[in-house]
Recover the amino acids of this structure.
Protein backbone atom coordinates (compact mmCIF):
# COMPACT_ATOMS: atom_id res chain seq x y z
CA UNK A 1 0.00 0.00 0.00
CA UNK A 2 2.82 2.40 0.94
CA UNK A 3 4.65 1.49 -2.25
CA UNK A 4 1.54 2.37 -4.29
CA UNK A 5 1.06 5.64 -2.36
CA UNK A 6 4.59 6.77 -3.22
CA UNK A 7 4.03 5.96 -6.88
CA UNK A 8 0.73 7.84 -7.00
CA UNK A 9 2.21 10.89 -5.27
CA UNK A 10 5.15 10.93 -7.64
CA UNK A 11 2.92 10.68 -10.72
CA UNK A 12 0.59 13.40 -9.46
CA UNK A 13 3.47 15.81 -8.88
CA UNK A 14 5.22 15.19 -12.19
CA UNK A 15 3.30 17.87 -14.09
CA UNK A 16 4.21 20.50 -11.49
CA UNK A 17 7.71 19.50 -10.51
CA UNK A 18 8.74 16.26 -12.14
CA UNK A 19 11.78 14.30 -11.13
CA UNK A 20 13.13 14.87 -14.64
CA UNK A 21 13.00 18.67 -14.04
CA UNK A 22 14.31 18.72 -10.48
CA UNK A 23 17.89 18.79 -11.74
CA UNK A 24 17.23 22.15 -13.40
CA UNK A 25 17.60 23.97 -10.08
CA UNK A 26 21.11 22.64 -9.53
CA UNK A 27 23.96 25.11 -9.63
CA UNK A 28 26.26 23.66 -12.25
CA UNK A 29 28.92 26.36 -11.99
CA UNK A 30 30.18 25.54 -8.51
CA UNK A 31 29.64 23.07 -5.71
CA UNK A 32 28.06 25.63 -3.41
CA UNK A 33 25.42 26.78 -3.27
CA UNK A 34 23.88 23.54 -4.49
CA UNK A 35 20.72 25.11 -5.89
CA UNK A 36 19.97 28.23 -7.87
CA UNK A 37 16.71 28.88 -6.02
CA UNK A 38 15.80 28.11 -2.39
CA UNK A 39 14.28 24.73 -1.60
CA UNK A 40 13.43 22.86 1.59
CA UNK A 41 14.33 19.26 2.36
CA UNK A 42 13.03 17.43 5.41
CA UNK A 43 15.43 15.20 7.30
CA UNK A 44 14.79 12.41 9.78
CA UNK A 45 17.40 10.69 11.91
CA UNK A 46 18.51 9.64 15.36
CA UNK A 47 19.47 12.46 17.69
CA UNK A 48 22.39 11.18 19.76
CA UNK A 49 22.11 11.00 23.52
CA UNK A 50 24.45 13.98 23.98
CA UNK A 51 23.35 15.92 20.88
CA UNK A 52 21.96 19.42 21.05
CA UNK A 53 18.81 20.04 19.02
CA UNK A 54 19.87 19.64 15.40
CA UNK A 55 18.33 22.96 14.38
CA UNK A 56 20.60 24.79 16.85
CA UNK A 57 23.86 23.17 15.70
CA UNK A 58 26.45 25.38 14.00
CA UNK A 59 27.01 22.66 11.39
CA UNK A 60 23.41 22.67 10.20
CA UNK A 61 23.03 26.45 10.45
CA UNK A 62 26.10 27.08 8.33
CA UNK A 63 25.38 24.31 5.85
CA UNK A 64 21.90 25.63 5.12
CA UNK A 65 23.40 29.02 4.21
CA UNK A 66 26.17 27.39 2.14
CA UNK A 67 23.85 25.14 0.15
CA UNK A 68 20.74 27.29 -0.30
CA UNK A 69 18.75 24.35 1.10
CA UNK A 70 16.56 24.93 4.14
CA UNK A 71 16.14 21.91 6.37
CA UNK A 72 12.93 20.77 8.02
CA UNK A 73 14.23 18.88 11.06
CA UNK A 74 12.32 15.77 12.10
CA UNK A 75 14.96 14.01 14.19
CA UNK A 76 13.86 11.58 16.90
CA UNK A 77 15.43 11.23 20.37
CA UNK A 78 17.91 8.48 21.15
CA UNK A 79 15.65 6.94 23.78
CA UNK A 80 12.89 4.99 22.07
CA UNK A 81 14.37 5.66 18.64
CA UNK A 82 13.58 2.21 17.22
CA UNK A 83 9.89 2.85 17.80
CA UNK A 84 10.13 6.34 16.29
CA UNK A 85 11.81 4.93 13.21
CA UNK A 86 9.15 2.25 12.82
CA UNK A 87 6.42 4.87 13.11
CA UNK A 88 8.12 7.02 10.49
CA UNK A 89 8.16 4.14 8.01
CA UNK A 90 4.53 3.30 8.84
CA UNK A 91 3.22 6.87 8.58
CA UNK A 92 0.31 7.31 6.14
CA UNK A 93 1.32 10.95 5.58
CA UNK A 94 4.42 10.29 3.50
CA UNK A 95 8.12 10.20 4.28
CA UNK A 96 10.78 12.79 5.00
CA UNK A 97 13.00 13.61 2.02
CA UNK A 98 16.30 12.43 3.49
CA UNK A 99 17.23 10.00 6.24
CA UNK A 100 20.37 11.34 7.93
CA UNK A 101 22.07 9.23 10.61
CA UNK A 102 18.92 7.06 10.71
CA UNK A 103 20.63 3.89 12.02
CA UNK A 104 19.17 1.74 9.24
CA UNK A 105 19.83 -1.96 9.67
CA UNK A 106 20.74 -4.21 6.76
CA UNK A 107 17.28 -5.77 6.92
CA UNK A 108 15.63 -2.33 6.80
CA UNK A 109 17.74 -1.23 3.85
CA UNK A 110 16.68 -4.30 1.88
CA UNK A 111 13.02 -4.20 2.92
CA UNK A 112 12.39 -0.52 2.27
CA UNK A 113 14.54 -0.58 -0.84
CA UNK A 114 12.60 -3.46 -2.33
CA UNK A 115 9.33 -1.76 -1.28
CA UNK A 116 10.50 1.36 -3.18
CA UNK A 117 10.35 3.54 -0.09
CA UNK A 118 14.10 4.16 -0.43
CA UNK A 119 15.17 5.09 -3.93
CA UNK A 120 18.19 3.57 -5.73
CA UNK A 121 21.23 5.83 -5.46
CA UNK A 122 23.78 4.30 -7.82
CA UNK A 123 22.91 6.43 -10.87
CA UNK A 124 22.65 9.58 -8.77
CA UNK A 125 26.04 8.84 -7.28
CA UNK A 126 27.68 8.48 -10.67
CA UNK A 127 26.26 11.74 -12.01
CA UNK A 128 26.04 14.02 -8.97
CA UNK A 129 28.34 12.67 -6.24
CA UNK A 130 31.97 12.90 -7.38
CA UNK A 131 33.41 12.79 -3.85
CA UNK A 132 31.62 9.64 -2.69
CA UNK A 133 32.21 8.00 -6.07
CA UNK A 134 35.94 8.72 -5.82
CA UNK A 135 36.05 7.15 -2.37
CA UNK A 136 34.29 4.04 -3.68
CA UNK A 137 36.95 3.80 -6.37
CA UNK A 138 39.73 4.28 -3.83
CA UNK A 139 38.22 1.71 -1.44
CA UNK A 140 36.57 -0.96 -3.65
CA UNK A 141 35.14 -2.90 -0.70
CA UNK A 142 32.78 0.02 0.03
CA UNK A 143 30.66 -0.59 -3.07
CA UNK A 144 30.39 -4.30 -2.31
CA UNK A 145 29.29 -3.58 1.24
CA UNK A 146 26.52 -1.11 0.35
CA UNK A 147 25.19 -2.85 -2.78
CA UNK A 148 22.09 -4.97 -2.21
CA UNK A 149 21.55 -8.38 -3.86
CA UNK A 150 19.35 -6.78 -6.53
CA UNK A 151 22.28 -4.58 -7.61
CA UNK A 152 20.94 -1.32 -6.19
CA UNK A 153 22.44 0.98 -3.57
CA UNK A 154 19.67 2.16 -1.25
CA UNK A 155 21.74 3.67 1.57
CA UNK A 156 25.23 5.05 2.04
CA UNK A 157 27.80 4.06 4.63
CA UNK A 158 30.22 6.23 6.54
CA UNK A 159 33.76 6.09 5.16
CA UNK A 160 36.26 5.43 7.94
CA UNK A 161 39.59 5.64 6.11
CA UNK A 162 41.72 5.53 9.27
CA UNK A 163 42.89 2.15 10.54
CA UNK A 164 43.20 3.47 14.09
CA UNK A 165 39.44 4.10 14.21
CA UNK A 166 38.61 0.50 13.27
CA UNK A 167 40.78 -1.63 15.56
CA UNK A 168 41.03 -2.53 19.22
CA UNK A 169 44.47 -1.58 20.57
CA UNK A 170 46.51 -3.58 23.07
CA UNK A 171 47.46 -1.13 25.82
CA UNK A 172 50.32 -1.90 28.21
CA UNK A 173 51.16 -0.12 31.47
CA UNK A 174 54.79 0.95 31.03
CA UNK A 175 55.03 2.29 34.58
CA UNK A 176 54.35 -1.20 35.91
CA UNK A 177 56.89 -2.67 33.50
CA UNK A 178 59.60 -0.20 34.51
CA UNK A 179 58.92 -0.62 38.24
CA UNK A 180 59.48 -4.36 37.89
CA UNK A 181 62.35 -4.29 35.42
CA UNK A 182 60.33 -5.83 32.61
CA UNK A 183 60.54 -5.26 28.87
CA UNK A 184 57.44 -4.85 26.74
CA UNK A 185 56.10 -8.39 26.28
CA UNK A 186 56.31 -9.60 22.69
CA UNK A 187 55.64 -13.33 23.09
CA UNK A 188 53.05 -15.30 24.99
CA UNK A 189 55.77 -16.51 27.35
CA UNK A 190 56.77 -12.92 28.12
CA UNK A 191 53.10 -11.96 28.46
CA UNK A 192 52.46 -14.69 31.03
CA UNK A 193 55.51 -13.64 33.03
CA UNK A 194 54.42 -9.99 33.02
CA UNK A 195 50.88 -10.87 34.10
CA UNK A 196 52.17 -12.90 37.03
CA UNK A 197 54.35 -10.00 38.15
CA UNK A 198 51.45 -7.56 37.76
CA UNK A 199 49.25 -9.74 39.96
CA UNK A 200 51.51 -9.31 42.98
CA UNK A 201 52.56 -5.72 42.30
CA UNK A 202 50.98 -3.14 44.61
CA UNK A 203 51.04 -0.27 42.13
CA UNK A 204 49.13 2.26 44.23
CA UNK A 205 50.70 1.22 47.54
CA UNK A 206 47.39 0.74 49.32
CA UNK A 207 48.15 -2.82 50.38
CA UNK A 208 45.12 -4.16 48.50
CA UNK A 209 45.08 -6.56 45.57
CA UNK A 210 43.05 -4.24 43.33
CA UNK A 211 45.44 -4.28 40.37
CA UNK A 212 44.15 -6.30 37.39
CA UNK A 213 46.83 -7.92 35.20
CA UNK A 214 44.75 -8.24 32.01
CA UNK A 215 41.25 -7.05 31.12
CA UNK A 216 38.72 -6.52 28.34
CA UNK A 217 35.40 -4.71 28.16
CA UNK A 218 33.55 -7.91 27.29
CA UNK A 219 34.15 -11.52 26.43
CA UNK A 220 33.36 -10.74 22.81
CA UNK A 221 35.99 -8.01 22.62
CA UNK A 222 38.50 -10.29 24.32
CA UNK A 223 37.95 -13.02 21.72
CA UNK A 224 38.03 -10.54 18.84
CA UNK A 225 41.41 -9.23 19.93
CA UNK A 226 43.01 -12.53 20.93
CA UNK A 227 41.72 -14.80 18.15
CA UNK A 228 44.06 -13.36 15.53
CA UNK A 229 47.07 -14.33 17.64
CA UNK A 230 45.96 -17.95 17.24
CA UNK A 231 45.65 -17.61 13.45
CA UNK A 232 41.90 -16.92 13.40
CA UNK A 233 40.22 -14.32 11.19
CA UNK A 234 36.82 -12.61 11.15
CA UNK A 235 35.75 -12.87 7.53
CA UNK A 236 32.43 -11.18 6.68
CA UNK A 237 32.38 -9.99 10.29
CA UNK A 238 31.91 -13.58 11.44
CA UNK A 239 34.11 -16.15 13.13
CA UNK A 240 35.33 -17.59 9.86
CA UNK A 241 38.70 -18.10 8.18
CA UNK A 242 39.48 -17.76 4.49
CA UNK A 243 41.59 -20.46 2.86
CA UNK A 244 45.03 -19.52 1.56
CA UNK A 245 43.79 -19.59 -2.04
CA UNK A 246 41.02 -17.17 -1.06
CA UNK A 247 38.21 -19.45 -2.26
CA UNK A 248 36.86 -21.27 0.78
CA UNK A 249 35.39 -20.19 4.12
CA UNK A 250 35.51 -22.27 7.29
CA UNK A 251 34.06 -21.56 10.71
CA UNK A 252 36.67 -21.69 13.45
CA UNK A 253 34.15 -22.26 16.21
CA UNK A 254 34.99 -25.98 15.95
CA UNK A 255 38.66 -25.42 15.07
CA UNK A 256 41.37 -26.80 17.37
CA UNK A 257 43.00 -23.36 17.35
CA UNK A 258 39.89 -21.92 19.02
CA UNK A 259 40.06 -24.72 21.57
CA UNK A 260 43.70 -23.83 22.23
CA UNK A 261 42.74 -20.18 22.75
CA UNK A 262 40.11 -21.18 25.29
CA UNK A 263 42.50 -23.53 27.08
CA UNK A 264 45.15 -20.82 27.35
CA UNK A 265 42.54 -18.36 28.61
CA UNK A 266 41.35 -20.84 31.23
CA UNK A 267 44.92 -21.32 32.50
CA UNK A 268 45.32 -17.56 32.89
CA UNK A 269 41.86 -17.24 34.43
CA UNK A 270 42.62 -19.96 36.96
CA UNK A 271 45.72 -18.04 38.06
CA UNK A 272 43.69 -14.87 38.49
CA UNK A 273 45.54 -13.11 35.66
CA UNK A 274 42.49 -12.24 33.54
CA UNK A 275 39.60 -10.13 34.82
CA UNK A 276 36.57 -12.40 35.24
CA UNK A 277 34.28 -9.37 35.04
CA UNK A 278 34.61 -9.43 31.24
CA UNK A 279 31.83 -12.03 31.08
CA UNK A 280 29.18 -9.76 32.61
CA UNK A 281 30.38 -6.20 33.27
CA UNK A 282 28.73 -2.99 32.13
CA UNK A 283 30.74 -0.73 29.88
CA UNK A 284 30.74 2.02 32.50
CA UNK A 285 32.51 -0.25 34.96
CA UNK A 286 35.23 -1.02 32.44
CA UNK A 287 35.69 2.67 31.68
CA UNK A 288 36.15 3.29 35.40
CA UNK A 289 38.85 0.63 35.53
CA UNK A 290 40.69 2.14 32.59
CA UNK A 291 40.48 5.61 34.10
CA UNK A 292 41.45 4.32 37.55
CA UNK A 293 44.87 3.10 36.43
CA UNK A 294 44.37 -0.40 37.83
CA UNK A 295 44.95 -2.31 34.59
CA UNK A 296 48.23 -3.80 33.38
CA UNK A 297 47.27 -4.90 29.86
CA UNK A 298 43.89 -4.21 28.34
CA UNK A 299 42.03 -3.65 25.07
CA UNK A 300 40.34 -0.48 23.81
CA UNK A 301 40.01 1.35 20.48
CA UNK A 302 41.48 4.63 21.72
CA UNK A 303 42.96 6.33 24.76
CA UNK A 304 40.03 8.70 25.23
CA UNK A 305 38.83 6.90 28.36
CA UNK A 306 42.09 7.07 30.31
CA UNK A 307 45.26 9.06 30.85
CA UNK A 308 47.71 7.38 28.49
CA UNK A 309 50.83 8.98 29.97
CA UNK A 310 52.03 5.62 31.29
CA UNK A 311 50.60 3.43 28.52
CA UNK A 312 51.67 2.43 25.04
CA UNK A 313 49.99 0.41 22.34
CA UNK A 314 51.85 -2.82 21.64
CA UNK A 315 51.92 -5.51 18.97
CA UNK A 316 50.05 -8.84 19.15
CA UNK A 317 51.87 -11.57 21.04
CA UNK A 318 53.68 -14.24 19.04
CA UNK A 319 54.18 -17.90 19.78
CA UNK A 320 50.78 -19.47 19.17
CA UNK A 321 50.50 -19.18 15.40
CA UNK A 322 52.89 -18.65 12.53
CA UNK A 323 50.39 -16.22 10.98
CA UNK A 324 48.93 -13.46 13.16
CA UNK A 325 45.90 -11.36 12.17
CA UNK A 326 44.54 -8.11 13.54
CA UNK A 327 40.80 -7.81 13.19
CA UNK A 328 39.59 -4.54 11.71
CA UNK A 329 36.24 -3.04 11.02
CA UNK A 330 35.58 -2.29 7.33
CA UNK A 331 36.24 1.08 5.70
CA UNK A 332 32.46 1.29 5.25
CA UNK A 333 32.16 0.78 8.98
CA UNK A 334 28.75 2.28 9.73
CA UNK A 335 25.98 1.11 7.41
CA UNK A 336 22.69 2.86 6.68
CA UNK A 337 23.85 6.41 7.44
CA UNK A 338 22.02 8.19 4.61
CA UNK A 339 19.11 7.47 2.28
CA UNK A 340 16.63 9.33 0.08
CA UNK A 341 12.96 8.41 0.11
CA UNK A 342 10.50 8.17 -2.74
CA UNK A 343 8.77 11.36 -1.56
CA UNK A 344 11.81 13.53 -2.22
CA UNK A 345 11.11 16.01 -5.06
CA UNK A 346 14.77 16.93 -5.44
CA UNK A 347 16.87 13.75 -5.26
CA UNK A 348 19.70 15.32 -7.28
CA UNK A 349 20.00 18.15 -4.77
CA UNK A 350 19.78 15.68 -1.90
CA UNK A 351 22.64 13.56 -3.21
CA UNK A 352 24.70 16.72 -3.80
CA UNK A 353 23.88 17.75 -0.21
CA UNK A 354 25.39 14.58 1.23
CA UNK A 355 28.24 14.33 -1.26
CA UNK A 356 29.93 17.57 -0.20
CA UNK A 357 30.33 16.17 3.30
CA UNK A 358 32.57 13.47 1.82
CA UNK A 359 35.00 16.05 0.43
CA UNK A 360 37.93 17.22 2.54
CA UNK A 361 36.43 20.64 3.24
CA UNK A 362 32.98 19.17 3.79
CA UNK A 363 34.38 16.68 6.26
CA UNK A 364 35.97 19.55 8.20
CA UNK A 365 32.58 21.23 8.47
CA UNK A 366 30.94 18.01 9.64
CA UNK A 367 33.60 17.08 12.16
CA UNK A 368 34.86 20.48 13.36
CA UNK A 369 32.02 22.95 12.95
CA UNK A 370 32.68 26.56 11.99
CA UNK A 371 36.19 27.63 11.03
CA UNK A 372 37.33 30.47 13.28
CA UNK A 373 34.84 29.53 15.98
CA UNK A 374 35.44 25.90 16.94
CA UNK A 375 38.51 25.20 14.82
CA UNK A 376 41.47 26.77 13.08
CA UNK A 377 44.10 25.48 10.66
CA UNK A 378 47.61 24.35 11.48
CA UNK A 379 50.71 25.26 9.50
CA UNK A 380 49.87 22.61 6.91
CA UNK A 381 46.31 23.85 6.47
CA UNK A 382 44.65 21.02 8.36
CA UNK A 383 41.99 21.56 11.03
CA UNK A 384 42.64 21.71 14.77
CA UNK A 385 40.04 22.31 17.46
CA UNK A 386 40.28 25.49 19.50
CA UNK A 387 41.05 25.24 23.20
CA UNK A 388 38.20 24.09 25.39
CA UNK A 389 36.94 21.30 23.12
CA UNK A 390 39.25 18.28 23.30
CA UNK A 391 40.22 19.30 26.85
CA UNK A 392 36.70 20.17 27.97
CA UNK A 393 35.94 18.79 31.46
CA UNK A 394 32.54 17.62 30.21
CA UNK A 395 34.27 15.38 27.66
CA UNK A 396 35.21 16.11 24.07
CA UNK A 397 32.39 14.02 22.59
CA UNK A 398 29.51 15.77 24.39
CA UNK A 399 31.15 19.14 23.71
CA UNK A 400 31.45 18.50 19.96
CA UNK A 401 27.90 17.11 19.93
CA UNK A 402 26.63 20.61 20.65
CA UNK A 403 27.68 21.87 17.24
CA UNK A 404 27.72 18.80 14.94
CA UNK A 405 26.14 15.36 14.71
CA UNK A 406 28.99 12.85 14.38
CA UNK A 407 29.60 12.05 18.09
CA UNK A 408 27.67 8.95 19.06
CA UNK A 409 28.21 7.09 15.80
CA UNK A 410 26.08 6.31 12.79
CA UNK A 411 26.46 9.64 10.99
CA UNK A 412 27.27 9.98 7.26
CA UNK A 413 30.86 11.03 7.85
CA UNK A 414 34.23 10.80 6.14
CA UNK A 415 37.05 10.17 8.59
CA UNK A 416 40.58 10.52 7.26
CA UNK A 417 44.10 11.16 8.51
CA UNK A 418 43.57 14.92 8.62
CA UNK A 419 40.27 15.15 10.52
CA UNK A 420 40.45 12.32 13.04
CA UNK A 421 42.15 13.87 16.06
CA UNK A 422 39.03 13.74 18.26
CA UNK A 423 38.82 9.95 18.00
CA UNK A 424 42.39 8.97 17.24
CA UNK A 425 44.85 10.95 19.32
CA UNK A 426 48.56 10.88 18.47
CA UNK A 427 48.94 8.19 21.14
CA UNK A 428 46.18 6.11 19.56
CA UNK A 429 47.67 6.53 16.11
CA UNK A 430 51.08 5.49 17.46
CA UNK A 431 49.42 2.43 18.99
CA UNK A 432 48.00 1.57 15.57
CA UNK A 433 51.49 1.39 14.05
CA UNK A 434 52.15 -1.64 16.23
CA UNK A 435 49.14 -3.38 14.64
CA UNK A 436 49.58 -2.34 11.01
CA UNK A 437 52.00 -5.15 10.04
CA UNK A 438 49.31 -7.70 10.93
CA UNK A 439 46.52 -6.13 8.85
CA UNK A 440 47.93 -6.85 5.40
CA UNK A 441 45.48 -9.57 4.40
CA UNK A 442 42.24 -9.80 2.47
CA UNK A 443 39.33 -9.15 4.81
CA UNK A 444 35.73 -9.24 3.56
CA UNK A 445 33.13 -7.04 5.20
CA UNK A 446 29.62 -8.12 6.15
CA UNK A 447 27.47 -7.84 2.98
CA UNK A 448 23.78 -7.12 2.50
CA UNK A 449 21.49 -10.12 1.95
CA UNK A 450 17.96 -10.39 0.65
CA UNK A 451 15.19 -10.45 3.24
CA UNK A 452 14.64 -14.22 3.29
CA UNK A 453 18.36 -14.97 3.54
CA UNK A 454 18.80 -12.35 6.22
CA UNK A 455 15.96 -13.85 8.27
CA UNK A 456 17.53 -17.28 8.04
CA UNK A 457 20.96 -15.94 8.95
CA UNK A 458 19.57 -14.22 12.03
CA UNK A 459 18.07 -17.46 13.28
CA UNK A 460 21.22 -19.47 12.61
CA UNK A 461 23.60 -16.84 13.99
CA UNK A 462 21.58 -16.35 17.17
CA UNK A 463 21.50 -20.07 17.95
CA UNK A 464 25.11 -20.74 16.97
CA UNK A 465 26.73 -17.72 18.60
CA UNK A 466 24.68 -17.93 21.79
CA UNK A 467 25.57 -21.58 22.27
CA UNK A 468 29.24 -21.13 21.31
CA UNK A 469 29.73 -18.14 23.61
CA UNK A 470 28.00 -19.88 26.49
CA UNK A 471 30.11 -23.01 26.15
CA UNK A 472 33.33 -21.02 25.72
CA UNK A 473 32.67 -19.05 28.90
CA UNK A 474 31.79 -22.21 30.81
CA UNK A 475 34.97 -23.96 29.68
CA UNK A 476 37.09 -21.01 30.82
CA UNK A 477 35.35 -20.83 34.19
CA UNK A 478 35.59 -24.59 34.69
CA UNK A 479 31.84 -25.15 34.48
CA UNK A 480 32.27 -27.34 31.40
CA UNK A 481 35.10 -29.75 30.65
CA UNK A 482 37.22 -29.63 27.53
CA UNK A 483 36.52 -33.36 27.36
CA UNK A 484 33.11 -32.26 26.06
CA UNK A 485 34.65 -30.54 23.04
CA UNK A 486 33.47 -33.18 20.56
CA UNK A 487 29.93 -32.93 21.92
CA UNK A 488 30.12 -29.14 21.63
CA UNK A 489 31.23 -29.42 17.99
CA UNK A 490 28.52 -31.94 17.18
CA UNK A 491 25.86 -29.68 18.70
CA UNK A 492 27.00 -26.75 16.56
CA UNK A 493 26.83 -28.91 13.44
CA UNK A 494 23.30 -29.98 14.39
CA UNK A 495 22.36 -26.30 14.82
CA UNK A 496 23.22 -25.63 11.17
CA UNK A 497 26.84 -24.49 11.30
CA UNK A 498 27.49 -25.78 7.77
CA UNK A 499 24.41 -24.00 6.40
CA UNK A 500 25.49 -20.77 8.13
CA UNK A 501 28.91 -20.93 6.47
CA UNK A 502 27.41 -21.91 3.11
CA UNK A 503 25.37 -18.69 2.91
CA UNK A 504 28.54 -16.63 3.17
CA UNK A 505 30.34 -19.05 0.87
CA UNK A 506 27.74 -18.41 -1.83
CA UNK A 507 28.38 -14.69 -1.52
CA UNK A 508 32.14 -15.26 -1.65
CA UNK A 509 31.67 -17.33 -4.82
CA UNK A 510 29.98 -14.36 -6.50
CA UNK A 511 33.08 -12.29 -5.79
CA UNK A 512 35.20 -14.90 -7.57
CA UNK A 513 33.08 -14.83 -10.75
Amino acid sequence: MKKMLCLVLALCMLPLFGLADSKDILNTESELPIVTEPITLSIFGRQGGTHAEWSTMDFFKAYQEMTGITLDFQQAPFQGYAESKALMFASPDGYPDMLVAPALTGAEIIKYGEDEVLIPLEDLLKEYAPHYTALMEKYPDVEGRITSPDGHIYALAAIIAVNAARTSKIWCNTAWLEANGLAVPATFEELENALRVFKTYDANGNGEADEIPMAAASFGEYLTTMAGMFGLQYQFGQRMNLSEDGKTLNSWLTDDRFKELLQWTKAMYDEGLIDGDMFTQERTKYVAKMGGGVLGIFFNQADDAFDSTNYIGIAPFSGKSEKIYVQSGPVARDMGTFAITCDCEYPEAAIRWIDYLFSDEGSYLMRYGIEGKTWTRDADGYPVYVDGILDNPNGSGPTIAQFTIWPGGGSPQYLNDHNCIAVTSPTTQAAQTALDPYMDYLLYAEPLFDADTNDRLMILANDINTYADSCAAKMIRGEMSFDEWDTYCKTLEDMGLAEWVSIYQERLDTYQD
Observations:
- Residues 168-327+442-450 form a domain with the D-Maltodextrin-Binding Protein; domain 2 fold (CATH 3.40.190.10).
- The radius of gyration is 25 Å.
